[in-house]
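task queued by scheduler; priority normal; single chain, no ligands, no partner chains; default sampling; output format set to structure tokens
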Amino acid sequence: MKPIQVGLLGIGTVGSGVFNVLKRNQSEIQRRAGRGIEITMVADLDTARAQAAVGPSVKVVNDARAIIANPDIEIVIELIGGYGIAKQLVMEAIAAGKHVVTANKALLAVHGTEIFAAAQAKGVMVAFEAAVAGGIPIIKALREGLTANRIQWIAGIINGTTNFILSEMRDKGLDFAAALKDAQALGYAEADPTFDIEGVDAAHKVTLMSAIAYGIPVQFDKAYIEGITKLAAQDIKYAEQLGYRIKLLGITKRVQANGKEGVELRVHPSLIPSKRLIANVEGAMNAVVVHGDAVGTTLYYGKGAGSEPTASAVIADLVDITRLHTADPAHRVPHLAFQPETIHQAMSDLQVLPMSDIVTSYYLRLRVADEAGVLAKVTGILAGAGISIDAVLQREADEVGGEGSTQTDVIILTHDCVESQMNTAIAQMQALSSVLAPITRIRKEELA
């Protein structure tokens, strides 16, 4: 059978990895797919560099629309990134009847509902395994492997840059700025790392996982997003002393709130018990924990970025499309796991909850005057807000500010409460004259 022809939009780090892995493992991939898969056209603005990367047998153009217009191309791989031209090209490829493979989590998290609807109407597939957690096949696990389950919650370390920074802060006692500088020097962080360190990249990814887990449209605009820029070295140290590690988690849960079922969708630093496997994921690695009612808790671990790990996921999508592209579209695995006609019903049943309704427990660090009665005032405010205390750690003033210091740190771990209760309590504690700096609040997730 004639090989299926593929057009590649963008041959940067991931694109070159896709080309090289596909070429290196060609015979094995063909045996799995049932026919050959060949990249026959590449579009890139730097045509000379692209031609050098793929050799003389592949046609290189500087206009992506030339690939979309080629009737021999059946699959388009989009590796340009961003929301702008990438969206236009994906929609044009779908309109031309091409299947699409993309690693563009930002595009799908913001415009996925429109893109998937267009693909459904045209009878083509949009595959995006590489958009979440790089080489870890988490999309396939959620969409197919765990399809018998009612997914209860997902928690993931899904941004390698931030995990590397937090690992550096813990291992070397660095503050955030120094750890970020190390990450940039080693190539783990971009020159402009905003999307990573502010949690936006992780939010794109958890938005996609939430949609697949619960059969709801992608709703990135409803995600709560908090990055790691305000974390201090002493918080990493205090958490360790209390038996926890701090990780940036993407979390989505199916919960009951105010008598109604809803979905949590949030990204923020979290204290995790050190004994949990995910708490011990270090460096730039990714890990996702999924809890289903039938299977229990499962963990998926691996490289979340990089040329060939991400290429592994892109090529897996190519193989899936090659196997299924002649099948009746109604018999393919739905883009978001649930059959499209049920999505609107699911959306009306499961709303993304505002952060004020979230129930979790907390780590609080207060810089206070080293004087009698401060702790009693603080604990009194928490009790008045209906928040019970799990543990208290008070540092010696000399340890915090040096000999003769008149300030100290009080660290409090709470039991579960509603976020709105904690917001009220923090405002009241912050107003105390004996509280000398903004209160640090980090959410705590037991993941039990």
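post-processing summary
- The longest helix spans residues 105-122.
- Residues 334 and 341 are 11 Å apart (CA to CA).
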